[in-house]
Amino acid sequence: MLYVYASLLLHSAGKEINEENLKRVIEATGVEADLVQIKAIVAALKNVNIDEVIKKGVSLAAPVAPTAQPQPQPQQVEAAKPKEEKKEEEEEVSAEGLSALFG
Description:
ribonucleoprotein, elongated, Ribosomal_P1/P2
């Protein structure tokens, strides 16, 4: 995301988004610039009209964040407990069987 933010910063300053400018912005933050990522972001933004993308509200690099999972109801939690206990008992029985093999 740092590289996307740096690209947007360059765009808002009216500067060209190229490898050298992007590298300078990244290094100004105190982070060592990754030239592979810089080349990738410059290539990805080459034919993109950033103003149009911003107007449309389309995300360039960030995927949609997952929604929060609903919390299980107390009834669902209670229903899940017996299955877990049963599984633990099965593991103990299988462990006993293995110990019989090795005396």
